[in-house]
Amino acid sequence: MIVREGTNPRIIIWALTIFGLAAIYAPPLYLLGVSFNPSLQPGLPHFSDLTLKWYMALGGENALVAALVQSLIIALATAVIATALSLGAALAYRELHRGRSIWFLTVLLPMFVPGVIQGLALSTVISRIGMKASALTVIAGHLLWAMPFAFIVILTSFAAVKRTYLMAADDLGASRFRQFYDITLPLIRPGLISAFIFSFLLSLNEFTRAFYLAGRQNTLPVVLFGKMNAGASPTIYAMSGAIFLVSSVCVVAVALRSLLMQRRVR
């Protein structure tokens, strides 16, 4: 029997990859299955017992619906602001000749600060200046979390912007604004869309920072946590399953769009 060189390492790599993906996706997929269980007790239902009644019952959960609306508003605002600020930070990074590394680390620093510390610190500062906890304070906390990721996504998309394109436009008399609007922006648009969706999902699912900064207007993760401790209702599994499905669809849509853009470029 002839064993090809490199076969065993490939098998090990694929086995570890499959194991890692299974460990990541098994819990949310299990929760999704539980949401279709007609029983009050959590567990995977039989195929013949699948039901949507807990999804239909979400309309009567006023606290969950109100928290979902609040989270969507906060996530939308966070995504818009984080994408805009990250675009400015990425443009500044490309223009810098000295201090690039310092600027890069400065923008990424909030990514490495634990959420508990960030939330507690912001809550302390906000209370000291006499500002009440509200949706604005939650947005501020979520920006610190989402902006580094959006910055990396947008900065990566700048790989499609060749210096020669900008030099050619400059030779033709195009202003810096026209170069950005006509050349840079179309090329990095997939990155901007990805950064927006990424920031939106990060904000929508963020719990730790919102727990310290939400005040009376609780976000959906905070309400779900409270309901879980008070005695889980199957409707929270339905809400979690719906968010998981929508998030998965958004991620798949972004991935498909990126693939289509790559094919067009080729």
UniProtKB/TrEMBL annotation:
Subcellular location, record wording: Cell membrane
Domain ABC transmembrane type-1 residue range list: 68-258
GO annotation (BP), single: transmembrane transport
Record bears the keyword Transmembrane helix: yes
One Gene Ontology term, aspect cellular component: plasma membrane
Matching CDD domains: TM_PBP2
Keywords of this entry: Cell membrane, Membrane, Transmembrane, Transmembrane helix, Transport
Family: Belongs to the binding-protein-dependent transport system permease family. CysTW subfamily.
Protein name as annotated: Spermidine/putrescine transport system permease protein
Organism: Rhizobium lusitanum
